[in-house]
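Form 12-C: Joint structure prediction
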Amino acid sequence: MTIAPTVPPGQSERTDGARSGRLGALLRLRELPVTLALIALVVITTIANPLFLSPQGMKDLLLNATIVMILAVGQALVIITRNVDLSVGSILGLVAFGTGTLFANVPGIPIVVVFVVGMLLGAFLGAINGILVTVAKVPALVITLGTLYIYRGINNSWAGGTQYFAGDRPEAFGSLSVDTVFGFPLITLIAVVVIAIVAIYLNGVRAGRDLYAIGSDPDAALLFGIPVSRRVLLAFLFNGVLAGLAGVLYASRFNSVGATTGTGLELSVVAAAVVGGVAISGGSGSVVGAAIGALLLTTITSALTAVRVDKFWQQAIVGMLILSAVIIDRIASVRTARKLRISEARDV
Amino acid sequence: MLRTIALDSSLGHRARGFETTHRGDEWECLVSITFRYRCILDIDGCSELVLYSTLHGPETIHPQCGGTNIASPSETSTPSGEAPEPRLALRGAVKAFGPVVALAEGTIEILPGEIHALVGENGAGKSTLVKILAGLYHLDAGEFRVDGRPVVFRNVADSKAVGISVIYQEPTLFPDITVGENIFIGRQPKGRLGLISRAAMRSAARRLFDQLGVRIDPDRVAEGLSIADQQIIEIAKAISLDAKILIMDEPTAALSGVEVERLFQVARNLRANGAGILFISHRFDEVFDLCDRITVMRDGRYIATHVTTDVTVDAIVREMVGRDVGALFPKEVAPVGDTVLTVRGLGRAGVFSDISFEVKAGEVVGLAGLVGAGRTEVARAVFGIDPYDRGSVEFLGTRLKPHNPKASTDAGMGFVPEDRRKQGLVMDLSVARNTALTLRDRLARFGIIDVRAERTAAAEWSARLHVKTTSQEYAVSTLSGGNQQKVVLAKWLATDPKFLIVDEPTRGIDVGTKSEVHRLISDLAGRGIAILMISSELPEVLGMADRVLVMHEGRITAELSRAEATPESIMHAATASLERTQ
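Section 2 - Result
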């Protein structure tokens, strides 16, 4: 037997490095289309209406986007595992109303405690979704459609006609979504930190990488010994935590919380994730993309308002964006597949 | 040159009796496929010891190793005479799925430093055994030891934890993930802050590929890789795991000669490191070339284990087949009529090539071969479900349009697929609906199906085929496997076909109903229908077929008359081992 020559580390890197340069890597980024769309949109709208990018305009834009951004990040975690969570709007509603109730009934409660309680409630509701999906082995679409109505029903019977208003909450809590640091609202900064943490988890932690493997091929993941159920459960639980956080922030941002808070949000959230390059079939995409997707959708609504486009058209345009995101994705993957096949044929 | 370098076990590796090379005072010892020691020796022993690891790069162990840890090289000492403890030992393993016993007595023993072949017909229980070793199935009964310690696997992770690594026939990569990460998923190298280091992962993957002599970009996603490249990545994965026990379930099916040789080199290297390797293959030349011992299984049972040098291909084949193939499935002799189907030079790139045969009225032609030989693919192309690149299919004197199943059905062909649950039946529809599915056009008036006519036609056919159901309106899913198969047959017979393809007609059907299905097929032939029967069960082929075509790797390797067809002749053609025995 001969011993294979030990390759000095780094030598082969250079030969391949030239092929996949930085530019190539940038062009392959799934977040690229959505980012370009966002930039183009902001530039065009600002030309049409210079007030759009004023400090106040920016602040409004970011405030509106923040909550959907956090929800989209959580949703991305779930979608990457080839699942979906439609109950996030209802979770947000329950937590937002719970936040209002806490402040109204426990005077002087520290704001931090409210955040923790809200996120724990979200974690609990998310874990229920996760357990049902992994134990019952029913598609998440159906399970979370069910919990969407159940959580909303609980919210309805709990709240009844009660609504809590901003006046019921301490001023410091409300100012979270008024105060700015360098022009950025505080709650937006909270969102950015959250996105960064989740992004690092998904990119740099083994359990986070497992989520991609599971979404890419669940059967192979089982064969490979990845604890699929545990990871999927965890993704739903994290998503619940983030929906809980969004619920608390919602109570800070908006004047009133009641029985219908957050109704219909889930569809915007899934749309944001898909537009941001998270493949609905699982396995690819990033939370940063999902967050940018949320920002893009919010910006479109604001931009169309700024250039005075009818509300009906706003929704139709969002719809077209979703379709183009899916189509761009499909075209890109078909092209890559063809390119890879050709390069392989040349090797032979 | 074989030398012994005794390294202290605290280094994590025992390097005894492995081949070493040296240049001057510099010695190199391959400890395992991922670890290599290089040391500079002088009279007192080792003055510098460097550990090269595929995963982590070079790492200098010296100066701690000076002194007592490292002894100077001495002449080879032979291992002690006692029999070594098996790496893996499975005895009397039983695994049943409901009433179906997949493994009645699974026994296998893999020694350290051994490549052990497992051979058997389709359905002999090899796959079940592999899945038990991989931790995918739980044992119902039996003794299972790894390195002498009894083990119970709850899941795949448990199996991996004791050092078992499996390469499956179908690569199981994650398409959306990069090649590098596919190799290291779940154990990606960590860099600063405990986060995954992509650079370390990339260079580790490159080192593995260099070692295997292949060029695959570790940064590309696995999607779109050829099966061979995917298999190489699986091999790289297995190497990097530094497996104690490597199980290869028909790994060579998709590989070319060079790649197979590379794989064998890897297997031999692992063997040299004391790993135990289980090699499952239908290619006897590979088995005899590579393996030290051979275990034969048949019908879910352990038959025998032989040392490769003491046994011949013929003996192995006899043991694999070794049952009485008597009058279990008699086909009645029917007058053979005109040629119904003529296939000439049919080929599809990478799937099958040069397929030519005829089927005559009243004749049952068996299509035998191993799983993956391309039998179903040929049948699907003939029927028009899949396209073909070259050749022609002539049916009743006219050339059939390729890739057009509707035209084939209209012309009088029928196809009873292998997977009746997925392809043959609509499980949630009623028995009547399923039976009348192929009659829709005939039963329809102005595009609307006459429900009463549908029911009548269905009832008639169910009665003829003795489908046992309390009501024609029950969903097909409530029937037993055998009765479901009869519904599929009824569905096609209702179209009054001239030619019928039946793919594995009795798979998963209990013995009683099996003979009923066989009687049915025999009846059909008797009525002048030409039948092409794909079957992996030798007794079925031998009992039913007037003529047997045998396929191996996309080609027809033999055409045997009823008199010529024996278990041995079919197995030889199916494994293409004729050259070896003649």
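Section 3 - Comments
Residues 270 and 329 of chain A are 16 Å apart (CA to CA). Chain A has 15 helices and four strands.
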